[in-house]
């Protein structure tokens, strides 16, 4: 997908209405004049650097390259075109999908019923499949969260916002801090710059927990508080066994062992405890992703091969059409 001229991009698409905004720019709904397709137009603000050069507020080139590397995957948002305006503002045209998973979960919280384990399995299979495509292409996403997942009209999920992706062809050190605190792996919170694609596994574990309980599992207001919330549930023994742990002072009051199963009990105990039920196989995936020691954490490829995704009802997990 080569860089198109700004005049071509802007003349080809009719801007309709704003659908989202953030620190890096604004996203609009637009229409392709040629095909009539409704698309999403991401306009990324730019500013003049010290030497007069145009600087993006996010890495536009990195996002375009990552999307191109994942072209054709059903669970990653697909690019349509890109270019720059005369003022330096970058424009990225993508397929239009729907609301974010964050928006959908917020709407679900206002209802009474939770997602079934089968529905959570469907969502996780799609997310793991999309992230595996990134990892196979030598990319870490590094900012997986419900805000960066879109939901289409059939309930299928698509990963978006690849601007913080990192090529693993380049050796560490990698940038840190990175991502969003509530979904950051313990090694990121401990300031490691020598991490790998298993930081994405952790984020997916957080999303899986959120799909089950409809709220983020760990919600610290600082990196240290976030780490404390994690270790309070998962215990300190695991992170201390990590080869990259250098004796950093950990938050106090945390026990040695994990209590994660107490929050996601087996179906026979869930009603009494008034918590979401999770089968043994499902819990093996959740606990495998939410493993503090990255050396023992489940990779996305390992997760997809787990028996949870091979149970008799797995035929219903094929993405909907």
From TrEMBL:
SMART domains, per the entry: S_TKc
GO CC terms for this protein? Answer: nucleus
Cite the InterPro entries for this sequence.
CDK, Kinase-like_dom_sf, Prot_kinase_dom, Ser/Thr_kinase_AS
Q: Which UniProt keywords apply?
A: ATP-binding, Nucleotide-binding, Phosphoprotein
Q: What class of enzyme is it?
A: transferase
Q: Which domain of life is it from?
A: Eukaryota
The chain positions of domain Protein kinase read: 13-309
One example GO MF annotation: ATP binding
Q: What is its EC number?
A: 2.7.11.23
Per the record, what are the reactions this protein catalyses?
A: [DNA-directed RNA polymerase] + ATP = phospho-[DNA-directed RNA polymerase] + ADP + H(+)
Keyword Protein transport tagged: no
Q: One of this protein's Pfam families, by short name?
A: Pkinase
Q: Does the keyword Iron apply?
A: no
Record protein name field: [RNA-polymerase]-subunit kinase
Q: Which organism is it from?
A: Oryza meyeriana var. granulata
